[in-house]
């Protein structure tokens, strides 16, 4: 009996799978066992056609392929290649060693990439389970950005058979790629960023107060809520924030690519953070994830990890959706529990909300008359509960734009400030940006002098601030000090942070 290492994807994490083959006397048959999905069952015809098309004999034996462990549901077309190799080399002394083999076969024996291969390999590398892998060249180009693995590539089934038959493995070694972007090295760790801005802040007129708040949000990964009349620039500012976000580590870039692969989108390795903006009619399961077992699907919450989640027209989202946001905004993770399994996702995203001041949107307008009565306005605002608003770091009221206003900032200038603040945070030894620091990390990385402590105590009594609110004020103040390149938080930073709290 021969066996080959492969893997399957369970939601977003990979599980190792041993592909075993036995050949016994009896009526010729070809069976795949071990909770194989219909996609894998179809591989029998692809494998047989690929072998016969390349003049390899298909054994007249009773062939049984087992995918172990048998209790795990398996899926994916990438099992074609390991199955074909076991059958083609069953009479030889070929040894597959510690190689993981992944690849889909065409009917003529060409090896193709599949959507799950990148996510599987990245997950296995993070679990320290994979060192050597054999894939097609199309897959190798994507995997070349993953460090600390040996990638071997072949184009056809015949080349894969020769790879394990003859001693020519080094010829098939694929070169590791280097990301062609600007790079920072802080405490021996590399971070990448770009200076291209498809949407630039210089296109926004005026709104100095809102842009300053957006700068603080980007520099420290703080949640922010914009309130203002329609057309004042809430969405414009929000959509430009992803271009001035802090640099990304290689792990963050790879995780972003992994989520793109799981969403069946083209994989990109740009160091620009993801921007997700679901419509307010989106279902709760599409935002938080749904399904069960191997068919569980990730939602917008998980897909926006490390980037931005933007809810436009915030009060129009369902009450259940808004209240369910409280856990990921507080704990930076979300647990989806199902009968068969439990799935946990990281949710360290920057949350942006945008809303009108009233149902008609004209309450703050100086040129248009508001058509809403007090009851309608109160009902509209009551859709946002106090516990949810307490998780918002920065609350910004925006006035109407004036045609005489001029652009104040460009994305390039703002991005340079964000990068400087990012460097200060990382040099302190922080693993997370200020906005996502835990209570323990706040005590470790943020210190306040007596004047700041007294000011916070007074503000806490006057504005009835909760413990969570106080911590958010401290974290925002730390980011403001970082933007001003100050090692110590001042009372001015505290006052500015308090000015952004909703009262």
Automatic annotation (TrEMBL):
Name under which the protein is recorded: Fis family transcriptional regulator
Pfam families: ChlI (PF13541), Mg_chelatase (PF01078), Mg_chelatase_C (PF13335)
Positions of the Magnesium chelatase ChlI-like catalytic domain: 200-401
One annotated GO molecular function: ATP binding
Domain Mg chelatase-related protein C-terminal: 410-501
NCBIfam families registered for this protein in UniProt: YifB family Mg chelatase-like AAA ATPase
Matches recorded under InterPro entries: CHLI-like, Mg_chelat-rel, Mg_chelat-rel_C, Mg_chelatse_chII-like_cat_dom, P-loop_NTPase, Ribosomal_Su5_D2-typ_SF, Ribsml_uS5_D2-typ_fold_subgr, Sigma_54_int_dom_ATP-bd_2
């Amino acid at each position: 009996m021969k066996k080959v290492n492969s893997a399957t994807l369970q939601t977003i994490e990979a599980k190792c799978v041993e592909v075993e083959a036995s050949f016994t006397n009896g009526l010729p048959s070809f069976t795949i066992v071990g909770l194989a999905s219909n996609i894998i069952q179809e591989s029998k015809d692809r494998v047989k056609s690929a072998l016969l098309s390349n003049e390899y004999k298909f054994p007249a034996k009773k062939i049984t392929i087992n995918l172990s462990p048998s209790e795990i549901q398996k899926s994916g077309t990438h099992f074609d290649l390991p199955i074909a190799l076991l059958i083609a080399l069953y009479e030889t002394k070929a040894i597959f060693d510690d190689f993981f083999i992944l690849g889909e076969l065409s009917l003529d024996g060409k090896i193709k990439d599949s959507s799950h291969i990148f996510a599987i390999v990245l997950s296995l590398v993070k679990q320290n389970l994979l060192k050597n892998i054999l894939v097609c060249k199309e897959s190798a180009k994507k995997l070349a950005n993953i460090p600390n693995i040996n990638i071997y590539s072949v184009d056809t089934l015949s080349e894969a058979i020769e790879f394990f038959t003859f001693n020519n493995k080094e010829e098939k070694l694929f070169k590791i790629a280097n990301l062609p972007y600007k790079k920072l090295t802080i405490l021996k760790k590399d971070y990448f960023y770009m200076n291209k801005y498809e949407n630039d802040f210089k296109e926004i007129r005026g709104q100095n107060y809102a842009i300053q708040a957006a700068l603080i949000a980007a520099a420290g990964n703080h949640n922010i809520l914009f309130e203002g009349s329609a057309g004042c620039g809430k969405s414009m500012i929000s959509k430009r924030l992803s271009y001035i976000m802090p640099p990304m580590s290689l792990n963050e870039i790879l995780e972003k690519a992994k989520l793109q692969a799981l969403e069946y989108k083209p994989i990109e390795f740009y160091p620009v953070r993801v921007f997700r903006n679901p419509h307010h009619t989106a279902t709760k399961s599409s935002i938080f994830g749904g399904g069960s077992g191997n068919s569980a699907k990730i939602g917008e919450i998980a897909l926006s990890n490390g980037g931005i989640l933007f809810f436009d027209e915030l009060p129009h989202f369902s009450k259940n959706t808004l209240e369910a946001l409280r856990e990921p905004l507080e704990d930076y993770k979300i647990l989806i529990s199902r009968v068969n399994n439990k799935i946990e996702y990281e949710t360290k995203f920057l949350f942006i909300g945008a809303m009108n001041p009233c149902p008609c949107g004209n309450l703050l307008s100086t040129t248009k008359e508001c058509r809403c009565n007090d009851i309608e306005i109160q009902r509209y605002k009551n859709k946002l509960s106090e516990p949810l608003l307490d998780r918002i770091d920065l609350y910004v009221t925006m006035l109407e734009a004036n045609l005489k206003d001029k652009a104040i900032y460009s994305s390039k200038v703002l991005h340079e400030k964000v990068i400087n603040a990012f460097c200060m945070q990382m040099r302190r030894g922080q693993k997370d940006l200020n906005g996502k620091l835990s209570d323990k990390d706040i005590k470790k990385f943020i210190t306040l002098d007596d004047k700041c402590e007294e000011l916070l105590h007074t503000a806490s009594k006057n504005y009835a601030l909760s413990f969570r609110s106080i911590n958010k004020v401290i974290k925002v103040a730390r980011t403001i000090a970082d933007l001003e390149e100050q090692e110590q938080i001042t009372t001015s930073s505290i006052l500015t942070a308090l000015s952004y709290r909703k009262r």
